[in-house]
Amino acid sequence: MEIFLLTLHSFGGKVGRGVIKTFVLAFILSGPVENITSNGKEVVRVFACTTSLTFNLTKTRFELMFKPFSEALFGMKADVNEVKDTMRSIRDVSAPVVGEVEDETEMRKLKEENDYMDAKTGDSSRCKDIIAKYEGKWEKSETEKLEKMYSKKIELRCEDQFTRAANNCRDMFKTAYDKCYDAVTWIAAWLLCWPMKLDFVCNIAQALGGTSRCDPSKDIDPGFGDGYVYLKKSRGQFSENFKNVRLQYKIGKIKQLIDIRDSYDTPKAILHLVNAKRSILHKLLVVLKRILAFVFLRIILNAQTYLDKYLSDIQFNNVYITIYFRKIDARRRKQGKYILLPLKKIEKKKLVDPCTPLPLKTENQQLLW
């Protein structure tokens, strides 16, 4: 029982700390070593994968060198049809853009609607003003011509929106006047329904916008004409480039390699070697851990040694001021004999008072080291 209690005490002492340091050192050594072996295995696995990938790529390269004839001949018809479909899709995509910019059918319709409204209201022809505005500009290139044409179309569309709004407004005034006239007598209609005749207010929204209400110059991005011209040229160049397509190839001579290892055998051999080395290292670590496990016996031996010295040597570790010692000192004080307590300064360095919270210098050294 005494040895067991001393063993528990030794766990917190210098011997116990030494055992803990030993186990910590063992785990510190085994952890990185295990990690290094795992990383090495992963490196070998990646190398094996890279080797297989290189082999597959090389095999594919050889196949591409010797199979272009059959694939080109059998796939010629499908490739031609695919190119035709691509060309057709490009034309289908660009056709709405070309129609939006260059088609003048919509412009004629817009011009008729705007001229009709201007003639009905007695105003000057807005279409003539717009045409005169853009015909007076000097065209330096085809891009400026296209930008001017598209700007004119946008401005005519804007004016057409005002025209439609004015027509709808007049129709609303006319409908309101008819309903008012039918709802009351003709005398009351003459007095109450006359404001419905004031349809000139339908031109107020158009007049408030000013002359620049439909100016598209601030909304059209700079370089619009350049982009459109580039689109048309690209479509034409794409068609021209696919008219004369030639397939050229050259078969290179490959040297025959002798006494080489297959790509599948090399990774297997490397993995086998790495696993063998890893197994040996793992066994060495297991043996080392088991040897270090015997260090635990040092605590038991230290407890047994302490007990033997304590029972056989009265001077061994006899530095504590116990309760029994205090009783003896008090009895000697009453008898007028020589006493030890209180301790002198030099005695405090050698003797231990369990009641004081301050440790001795030697205890501090054992605690830290």
UniProtKB/TrEMBL annotation:
The keyword DNA repair does not apply. Its main location: membrane. It is found in: Membrane. Keywords: Membrane, Transmembrane, Transmembrane helix. Residues 316-368 form the Dendritic cell-specific transmembrane protein-like domain. Pfam families: DC_STAMP. It comes from the Eukaryota. It is a multi-pass membrane protein. GO terms for cellular component: membrane. Coiled coil: none annotated. PANTHER family: DENDRITIC CELL-SPECIFIC TRANSMEMBRANE PROTEIN, E3 UBIQUITIN-PROTEIN LIGASE DCST1. This is Dendritic cell-specific transmembrane protein-like domain-containing protein. It comes from Tenebrio molitor.
